[in-house]
């Protein structure tokens, strides 16, 4: 009799506990629903997470859990909750719509598209169909943005140059301990006309919404009409990963460049670098960049050097008038490997300023200013003092885009380099007109 009484009392206690838990569980769900209605998604999500170990698997709770997760910015958690609901209640169309939306927000575009198509297959109300089509259109746009993009250009320019060899205009040169010398024609500034043939190709292959691979190939060829000894040609390749970091876009390029002078290899550059840009609001952008590499001169090993460079830039667009200004500064160091050529090494500081005014949709005048101060690492073995240069350049141009694929430009440029060694002092004036065809 006593044993039976004890069993009955234990059963009563168990029933009472179950009866007490049911209102508590219902109250927990009601609290989450109320918080969601009030817009307090953070509190709703915290409440749902706290109850999940005991309540996960209940369709009504999983719906609230999924809604709280989506609205709090955790669509990955919502996906699992809505999948449990759909598995237990295949006819729960609301859960299927929310599952598709959670996949979309989590970046699972193919899964989201498949779920939205299943929703359309059950012929939901017109309002639901309209919302589903809006998401499907957005998915199509995002998938297009994740496809490989190829852009490029071909450019032809012609102009005049008052000093193709960047040489001094002084016809005499004084060398300490040796006296004064008269310079011949090859050592003086020479003017000429030129033709430039340039081309570029850029490929971006997205891996995810936040990661991609890129490659840029640029070819530049400047041929002088009479002074072929100063013809310049360069081939540059940049390639590497691109990713979203710290609210901006980070590129990590591997760079390789060949520079040819008069069809002979003049210089090779190999480097690694970074380029980070971040939008600061709708009109401002910040840029940080750096480069570390090696310069090689096949015919003059004494000039081989290690290159280190870093800088920052900023741009701002004014709405009225439509003007964009940009400014940047950089510091660099080129340290030669061989002490015999130590005087070829240098440190430098540079500043750049540029602007463009969109006068009309097709016409844009622009300008740029640049200055660089450099000091070499050792005394010049011929001229005795340590070389110091002050470089300045101004450019003024006009761009005309008669069609999206075409760009016409005219530009004037003035360059001046002042140096404490007269051999390296020069001025240079250039003018050109050109056309660019762009494709994508």
UniProtKB/TrEMBL annotation:
Residues 1-26 form the signal peptide. It comes from the Bacteria. Transmembrane segments: none annotated. InterPro entries: OMP/PagP_B-barrel (IPR011250), TPR-like_helical_dom_sf (IPR011990). Keywords: Signal. Pfam families: TPR_19. This is Uncharacterized protein. The lineage of its organism: Bacteria, Pseudomonadati, Pseudomonadota, Gammaproteobacteria, Thiohalobacterales.
